[in-house]
Amino acid sequence: MAQQTDSATHFGFSSVPLGDKQSMVDDVFHNVARRYDLMNDLMSGGLHRAWKAAMIARLNPPRTARPFALLDLAGGTGDVAFAAARAAGEGFRVVVCDINPDMLAVGRQRATAIHLEQRVSFVEANAEQLGFEDNRFDASTIAFGIRNVPRIEVALREAFRVLKPGGRFLCLEFSHVDLPLLDRAYELYSFNVIPLLGGVVTGDADAYRYLVESIRQFPKPAAFADMMRAAGFGRVSFEVLSGGIVALHSGWRL
Ligand code: SAM
Q1: Which is deepest, 23, 37, 124, 175, by most CB within 10 Å?
Q2: Residues with pLDDT less than 70, the chain
Q3: Which CATH number covers residue 109?
Q4: Cβ 214 under 6 angstroms from ligand 1
């Protein structure tokens, strides 16, 4: 689990000054942005779509004209926002917020190509310091983003602050496989195949080495649930998907 102190944190398996992590993460996503979506499909065999669909099913946005505002944090190239918009009714709007302009640029192009630009907007922002007023959103989501944020507890407090009372926060993140055999196969695949594939597809094997290592540093689901409670969320729960490869966390602003 990531040890965060005032001065140090993890970037993958390396210990780095807390103040350096964000720029290192930004370099990773700058380098892979154009091939990010393709790489997600290749390395997960398309499974990431099912995990995101599970999060949208929990979100259950209204299928009517009733206004519903979603904030998708670290939303990258827009996958979650697009899936939610397709599942929702006419009153649905989503803001994709991400710190990386290259990821957002890909997302904007995709939104235009699939004619969702009226319902999906893109904002460059740090999840640790959102420019939105309190109580603005009906729900907030974050998929495979929170482990990249240097001060996770600060980002969780921000996600809580911008929610309306009664609003829900959902967080999808890689977790820890503890099924016999699957754990060994997953370990071999993660450390041998993913960086190799990342190198071939994006030209940056190190970016995918970081990804695999950062997953190992992320807290186990029960510990992350405690971090959510500490940020103010109530009725906190989680479910593990695909043998623990991924965990879906839920909390409410009560
Ligand atoms: N949510 C998208 C998805 O599931 O496909 C993208 C996930 S991608 C693995 C992680 C994203 O987190 C990147 O787009 C990165 O730029 C973003 N990110 C990293 N640190 C961030 C921060 N402090 N604030 C907002 N976004 C951040």
Answers
A1: 175
A2: 1-6
A3: 3.40.50.150
A4: no
